[in-house]
UniProtKB/TrEMBL annotation:
Record InterPro entries: RDD (IPR010432)
Transmembrane segments: 47-70, 76-100, 121-146, 158-178
Full protein name: RDD domain-containing protein
Species name: Pseudolysinimonas yzui
Protein topology in the membrane: Multi-pass membrane protein
Keyword field: Membrane, Transmembrane, Transmembrane helix
């Protein structure tokens, strides 16, 4: 004779096995990538980029002109150092948290395309691609100045310094819009994808 307790009356379900999992599983992303439904809209990415850019320009403006008002010509170095510090801060924040101030406001986050976690060191490559238009502009203006005949440039260097990066960033944004998962050149370099929060 078995020592097992008798089965419970019908309907109590005390000893019933747990229900079987559903026959269908949710759609899994290809190759472990983030789900398509979570990919951030390009407009939110543009908003985040604009907020970060305007913030950097505003801080630079305040530091430079605040220093000049106080009579400190050394404040002019902020034109170089503030954007550099902003780029370093954005890289560290992206690597560790996946957000910058602009991305936080726009409700988007940068994650690794396979793991869905912060990108870590890959954020450095991502940032290098983003600041690439500035580097290209500096090199291009240096080359054109070096080959200018008799010191004459057929364009205004200040205007070119603003227009060339803007055109390159617009071209990069077109790539973001055109790719199926809205991954730009910076995302391919940094093994990242931008998702909604």
């Amino acid at each position: 004779m078995s020592d097992a307790p008798p089965p419970p009356p019908d309907g109590l379900g005390i000893f019933e096995p747990p229900p079987a999992p559903p026959a269908t599983t949710p759609d899994l992303p290809a190759y472990g990538e983030a789900p398509v439904a979570r990919v951030a809209h390009p407009g939110r990415r543009a908003l985040a980029f604009a907020i970060d850019g305007v913030g950097t320009v505003a801080v630079t403006f305040v530091v430079v002109f605040g220093g000049l008002i106080l009579g400190s010509l050394e404040a002019l170095v902020a034109i170089f150092w503030v954007p550099l510090a902003s780029a370093v801060l954005a890289t560290v924040l992206t690597a560790t948290l996946g957000v910058t101030p602009g991305k936080w406001v726009a409700q988007v986050r940068v994650v690794h395309v396979v793991t869905g976690r912060p990108t870590g060191a890959w954020a450095l490559l991502r940032s290098l691609v983003i600041v690439g238009p500035i580097v290209v502009t500096i090199v291009l203006l240096q080359l054109l100045t070096a080959v200018a005949t008799e010191g004459y440039l057929p364009f205004d260097p200040l205007t070119a310094a603003l227009v060339i990066p803007a055109l390159l960033w617009i071209a990069m944004f077109v790539v973001v819009v055109a790719t199926p998962r809205h991954r730009g050149l910076e995302d391919f370099a940094g093994r990242s994808i931008v998702v909604g929060r």
